[in-house]
Structures are given as structure tokens and as C-alpha cells.
Amino acid sequence: MWIENTVTDNNLVASDISIIFCNDSYLLNMNQTYLKHNYFTDIITFDYSDAAYISGDLFISLDRVYDNAKLFCVSFEQELLRVVIHGILHLLGFNDKLEEEQKTMKSLENYYLNLYQND
Questions:
Q1: Which of 83, 91, 116, 117 could be cross-linked to 54 through a Cys-Cys bond (beta carbons 3.0 to 4.6 Å apart)?
Q2: pLDDT tens for each residue of the chain, 119 residues long
Q3: What is the phi/psi pair of residue 55, to 5°?
Q4: SS3 of residue 55 by DSSP
Q5: Is the whole-model pTM more than 0.90?
């Protein structure tokens, strides 16, 4: 419901969204193969959306989520929810390459995490 509410809040409709949990080595291999990046990451999002519907695959490294939760002094659940909503925001068309985009993304993550916690 939380993901669907996030999507409809952005005037779109959620279609097929898969969340695939994996480990660091699996996601590193994907990062190298598909994005030509040679570093660990917590999530890779494959976007299959069209004009009205969002659809995609969210590959999430539980190793990274666990390590980042410790690093940021938050629970594993909270960090996992942050990573999930980060992927959903990518499907909604938000980017995080530039510093200003990163600020917007972080603000939206916090907004939607707050909605989840108050749901």
C-alpha cells in the first residue's frame, strides 16, 4: 500500500514492480555488466515504465543495506525501506546524479519514509 500511495501521489499508477534481494557480489556483477561501474551499491533499478504506469525491477543488496544501517546508525528495516523508496523514486523519474538531484531525492526519501511510519 505504501509503495502504491507513493506512486499515486506522483499522479502515476503502479504496475509490475519486482524487488529482488541479493548479496554484494551478485549486485557488483550486475553493476559491472549492465552499468559498467566497478563498485558496490545498495540498489540497481531497471525501469520499464511508460507514460502512465511505472514498472521495473529493484535489485537490492542486503549486505549493503546491513552495512549502511550500521554506518548511519539506523535499523536494518529503516535502511531497507529507504533503499526501496529510493528505487521507486527512480521509477517515478527522479535522478540523483547531480548534487541538487541528490538533495531532492533525500528529501523525498525522508518524506515517504515518514508517511510509511505514520501509516
A1: 91
A2: 899 999 999 999 999 999 999 999 999 999 999 999 999 999 999 999 998 899 999 999 999 999 999 999 999 999 999 999 999 999 999 999 999 999 999 999 999 999 888 76
A3: -155, 145
A4: strand
A5: yes
